[in-house]
Amino acid sequence: MKPLRLAVVGHTNTGKTSLLRTLTRDPEFGEVADSPSTTRHVEAAALLLEGKAVIELFDTPGLEDAVALHEYIDSLAPPSERLDGPARIERFLQTREATLRFEQEAKVLRQLAASDAGLYVVDARDPVLEKHRDELALLASCARPLLPVLNFVSAAGHRVPEWRDALARLGLHAIVEFDTVAPAVDGEQRLYEKLGTLLDSAAPMLTALIADHARHRILRREAAGRIVADMLIDCAALRVPSPPEAQAVALHEEALRNLVRQREQRCMLELLALYGFRQSDLAGADLPAWNARLEHDLFNPEALKDMGIEVGKGVAAGAAAGAALDLATGGLSLGTGTLVGAAVGGLWQTAGRFGERFMGRLKGARELTVDDAVLRLLALRQRWLIGALEARGHAAQQPLALDTAQDEELRKGTLPTELRDARGHPEWSSMAKSHQDTPRRRAAVVALAQALG
């Protein structure tokens, strides 16, 4: 089956290239700018289904002077002549003016005539003017189905009702609202469904494309969850040993902070790549200023259980006497971080594997770990980022700015079991020299991804 050919047409600066970027999930396609007439030539892109191109999209220049062109085409016809629309357009394309004054319009009409249908992109913030009616009259003369796409419908002061009424008066009743900057979750589905009503023969393929996009959306979300869970396990299991002297502790606190910052940064970049965005789409990716405090981790409940020691509820909750000795403290609020040394760590797991670390403890050495509050913060930030990327169009120009995520369970509830287990397994952190990607660690990542939703 030959690919469905769609010409993306409309007035200048209405978001035609933006629509293709969002449909293809390619932020590099074409050029997007606020200035008019950015696209000067026809550019093509393809949508794939099972590795094969099923839709070919053609980005066309903006229609700049439809009123004058409409008058010029009328002037080419003798009073007694009765040519249909395609014949009138073809005669215009043979004139010298099609390569001079109306070169841009000729490119648009030529591409639409060679396509199966057209997507007429409208900036819903604009008033309906005479030039728009002449544009639609010219496009209708190509005798191809036309689906108006109302863009920027999320903007305040849009004129969607006005446009719907004007399009209905011109006989265009199949209309779709699709904001290329902030598309609705089902935006693509509604666009392809409307297109299927205009092109019956392509309806089965469009239905299959809708199902394929829905499947990939689920797979992306699952992959995103695993990326975040892997980062959280890394941070929960991370340990940085430090001598007891205050100056040395301060240096190692900073080392820990930097490791966590870099790990979160890597997580964010992986999420951006997964959703097809660029690093420039994210602003404020660096973690804010961190505070730190240091605590003993020798009596970690998980470490005690690994040694076969029974613990009560109080101990399991981290209430064992002498489990924490604060040397420096800092508060936590969303948008800031707190690092806690050796809070519910995993020092004493086995004498063979951790004997050297245990002896270091007896000599006063410390191990710094990431506090629960920081893990909560990291999880909140990544969940927010995933939601923001899923709701972002690939034509959006403003960078994302991380804000406060609302999730009471992550903020105040019990940490997921997998993160508490990671405290007792420093080898689970990929930032450790002793890193081991064990089956148990991989299972913890999968379970944590599911727990985080």
From TrEMBL:
GO terms of biological process kind: tRNA methylation; tRNA wobble uridine modification
Matching CDD domains: Ras_like_GTPase
Gene3D superfamilies: P-loop containing nucleotide triphosphate hydrolases (3.40.50.300)
Domain of life: Bacteria
Ranges of biased composition (kind: Basic and acidic residues): 417-426
Single GO MF annotation: GTP binding
A single Gene Ontology CC term: cytosol
Region entry Disordered, spans: 417-440
Domain G positions: 6-151
Pfam family, one: DUF3482
Name of the featured protein: DUF3482 domain-containing protein
